[in-house]
Amino acid sequence: MHPAVIPLWSSFCVNAVLAALLAWQSGKTRIHWVLLFLLLALGLWTGGAAWRYMADDLAGIQAAYRIMFLGIALTPGTWLFLCGLFSRVEWFEVRPAAAVLCLLPGSCFYLAFITNDAHGLVAEITAEDFHNGPLMRAFLAWAYCQVVVGVGLMVRHARFLAGQSGPTQAAVAVAASVAPFAASAAYQFGWVELSWDPTGAALGFSAALLFPLVFRLGFLEPVPLVRRDVFDHLRDGVVVADAVGCVVDANPAAEQLLGASIGNVRGRELRVCLEEIVESSDHGSIAMALADPGPDGPRILPEVSTLSGRQLRLSCGSLGDAGFVVVLHDRTEERKAERGLRQAQKLESVGFLAAGVAHEVNNPLAFVRSNLAHIQGACESLGKFAQPGDAELPAELAELPEVVAETLEGIERISTIVDQMRRLSRDATEEDGQVDLNAVLREAIRFASLHRGSRQVEVKAELAADLPSVRGNRAALVQVVLNLLLNARQALAEGAGSRILIHSGADAKGVFAVVTDDGPGIPEEIRERIFDPFFTTKAPDEGTGLGLAIAWDIVREHRGSINVTCPPEGGTVFRMVLPPAP
Hints:
single chain, Rhopdopsin 7-helix transmembrane proteins
């Protein structure tokens, strides 16, 4: 018996058992199927090689070679594809053509082998010997390249495997990868004196090494997460820099925040890249953090403001001698949500206060109004006995009706303010119904009477036809628009020939109404505070600072939104959006 038969049959049995176990295993992923295909190819290789040494006639030898070379043709490409999947190389994972390209050269070689009798370019086969032809040598060179690349991928991945699964498992995986290649190279280049190729036996040895890794330790189960799984899909920007502070890599979120692609920032100093996008007042904090990222973990910096108006929180952590990593957490939307929450909390607090204040003010206000009405009645009675120009009537008494009328007017203004405060504390108890927003706009325009008075403000309404109705309280919505119009009229107090434009419409977001004026606009530093209760830039006798806060509260109760913008050309635009009625 030839000395190669026993090791080759042993190798065949090992591969067959592993293939059977893997085929029986449930929940197989793509990488498991590729490993199963590789084990079958190795079984063909080793089984055919054992048969070749056991065959006595030329026909049996040729049949054994056909089986053996089918395994040889499929093994290198399948091995490379398996290593590419295991080390998570993107080209192997996302392109289906990768498997075809890996297996195509071997398939073409096998087609040439089974037709070798017609051209003799693969090999010269006799009962005693096997002589390589030019196609055989070319295929061996290609196969070695595939095997070397696969081994390289596995060795490169060994460092990560050592950190995740332990150094022993990583060393076993590398040994299983290198053993067949080393055995084949030693035989082909004459490094060892053997009368038969030990590659088949080495394949069985590698399969035996993989057995505990795959079936006992689940080596293929915890497939490591890499760039495409985590790094590229993070919403936070991540920038990796080397030991001297130059950018090495960045994910798409960081590219968006930096305003440049990785190709444009790679190799540049990270500090300079960050300083280009943030306010100059934050440059010192960035330089200090990058100079000392902190050995015990990331150092959280105060938030920095970008030139585009975004709020970023920087977390800088050391990577040892390899460099450091900076995480750019965009907190712009969080800050907007926090401001909205604070706005709601303010209105809730004001509501509780307003209920108590309104109750306390209304009680004395009621008897003051009653007493003034009594005095006004007395003045009317007095007027029946004397005329205002009567010399016998004191001047103070003559002016008393006018004083009472002005006092009652002041009482009504106080009552209006109290009603506004009560509006903040009142639950929406009115019955809601279908509301025509165009009708609300027309009524608010009529109440505001913007076309009258000394200001001569032009009002233009462009209302969309067939506007969907909204569900809500008509009077409350009129109050919202009225507050917006009064606010616009006061903003145009000093302007001649000013204009207010009101238009309505509907889009995918809902039914909207827009109030636009051509006044001086709202300064950016106070634009976010205009909906705060009691915040006003007007004189004490011109406003209480509750109008826009009440408007914001009413729109919120109607499940809508209201915002303000100031175009670069000037003016102010208030936009109210409400959901359409079902």
